[in-house]
Specification:
Strand content: 25-35%
Number of domains: 1
CATH architecture: 3-Layer(aba) Sandwich
Radius of gyration: 13 Å
Order of helices and strands: HEEEEHEHEEH
CATH class: Alpha Beta
Strand order of the largest sheet: 3-4-6-7
């Protein structure tokens, strides 16, 4: 993963205090990794607009969910890391974008003084 992309994303979400996920019926979207075999990826977004762009076609039933960065850091990242789920940073409609391990993302957030 490009450290520039990760740092830019982390800086943006730490400054705003929020990030965005896609959810449907109390479940959050997880997709197959484009980069790694047999690996799940949870798409996360730095803006509501970027997240909304994926709410069509196969994911039309999904809604954008706003999560406080501090909650994501403290509550979500340890579980995602334990389960081996990677994070997809601002993925596009083709699910192209940067994929990063939960621990690496957490370190980037900490480096930006979450």
């Amino acid at each position: 993963m490009s450290s520039t992309t990760l740092n830019t994303f982390a800086n943006k979400v730490v400054k705003s205090g929020q990030l965005f996920l896609l959810s449907a019926d109390d479940e959050y979207l997880v997709v197959d990794s484009v980069e790694y075999a047999e690996t799940d990826v949870m798409p996360i977004f730095s803006s509501k607009e970027a997240a909304t762009a994926l709410c069509s076609d196969d994911w039309a039933e999904y809604q954008v969910a706003q999560i406080a960065v501090e909650d994501f850091f403290e509550q979500w990242l340890p579980e995602l890391d334990k389960d081996g789920i990677m994070l997809g940073i601002d993925l596009d409609i083709e699910l192209q974008g940067e994929e990063v391990e939960a621990f690496t993302f957490g370190k980037a957030l900490a480096d930006h003084e979450i």
